[in-house]
Amino acid sequence: MARPGAGREEPCSRLRGWRLLAGVGMVLLAGCSTIEPLIESPASLDGEGGALTSEQAEQKARAAARPLDHVSLRAKYRRPAELPDGARASGPVVALGHKLFHSTELSGNRRIACVTCHLPNAAWADRKAKPIADNGRPMARRSQTLYDMAWASAFLWDGRQDSLAGMVSGPIASPDIMGLSLDAMVQRLAFSPEFSADFERVYAGVGPTPETVSDALAGYMNTLRSPATRFDRWVKGDERALTPAELRGFKLFNGKANCVACHSGWRFTDEGFRDIGLKDTGDRGRGRIKPQIESLAFAFKTPTLRGVAERAPYMHDGSIATLEAVIDHYDRGGVRRPSLSPDMFPLGLAAQEKSDLVAFMRSLSGPATSAHQADPEAMPQ
Ligand code: HEC
Ligand code: HEC
């Protein structure tokens, strides 16, 4: 495949070339970012990067044809009232999981707890591009939100885990995260008068084991539901719950902007793995696990957009600082390469459309509605 658009990721060089071609001249070169707003319709730049592939053109046409009436939109975004079967744990299990999640006993140097990188007021992610592990070193990827884990079926940015209970001991034992071997963890908890009594009460006759620790942590994390927001009131039928800008943004999301191709359903994710054309940093994501599938090179899990306004910076590498810049990325369509999803193409959004999309995404954050979400960011020292 010819890749004439491979260099298009640099907005400055792209605009520069276009401006020069258009004969506008050198005066604009210095303040590249200031000329961005002058571009009303980046669609006119399409030709520069080469025509859309037939797959992209097909997806673009499909996006424009999606029904946007309120009845069909509402039907697609209704939140379930209850946790799924199998995700409900008893009160004592959840309480023990809460305690473990906040305890530095689970890290080798007792410097960090799960909550260090999964903060309640950052939608259970953190606000760093690279969180700092117990060994003092930055991790390779950004932390993920833990909202609505009970409905998830693939875990981590590359989906290398397929169950929540199976994955929780991962961060504890990993030398790149909490750095405490599971044997040492069991010893610590068994020798702690407080934890050993807790475990005896909740898992009588079994006590602390990797399985009971996972069970309690998973039971707790399954309760971390995203708060219902004004958007959910709109879905329930309250026409006035969203502002006109938010509603326009929601329609763009489902139509022209094509976001729903991947961020679908009430959690705003299809849990698929896609290359959205971010700059190559050497991390091949899902592609490292399934190297034989070309489309998975640089593919990462589609994140939920619930609580998205609270957890900048964005993407697996924290490379995009704001929601406005996220929209600019999608508007440009991403780096063209063989793995780029055909659902990525230049969108040709006007300035108003961009700000409507951002307004809509902000409507997916809301006030805390449960005790857990109101949990103070108390980090045990
Ligand atoms: C030092 C920071 C750090 C600590 C401490 C930490 N995590 Fe994470 N967590 C991350 C990062 C970074 C990722 C994404 C890693 C990846 O995809 O490779 C992640 C991902 C996850 C996910 C996957 C979410 C999803 O959507 O797939 C879960 C669940 C999780 N962590 C739970 C925990 C639990 C439970 C603990 C404590 C035992 C913990 N984490 C401790 C940084 C941390
Ligand atoms: C082809 C599938 C696809 C399309 C289309 C798509 N996204 Fe995404 N989105 C993803 C994936 C995959 C990621 C994570 C990418 C990564 O980190 O490498 C992501 C990440 C994001 C993030 C960052 C969230 C976070 O927690 O880091 C936001 C915000 C976002 N998308 C919004 C949108 C909006 C708005 C649109 C429409 C303009 C859109 N997306 C279109 C798949 C898609």
TrEMBL record:
Keywords: Heme, Iron, Metal-binding, Oxidoreductase, Periplasm, Peroxidase, Signal
Coiled-coil residues: none
Stretches assigned to the Cytochrome c domain: 244-365
PROSITE patterns given in the database record: CYTC (PS51007), PROKAR_LIPOPROTEIN (PS51257)
A GO MF label: peroxidase activity
Record localization: Periplasm
Predominant localisation class: periplasm
One matching Pfam family: CCP_MauG
InterPro entries referenced in this protein's UniProt entry, alphabetically: Cyt_c-like_dom, Cyt_c-like_dom_sf, Cytochrome_c_Peroxidase/MauG, Di-haem_cyt_c_peroxidsae, MauG/Cytc_peroxidase
PANTHER family on file: BLL6722 PROTEIN, CYTOCHROME C PEROXIDASE-RELATED
Full protein name: Cytochrome-c peroxidase
Species of origin: Bosea eneae
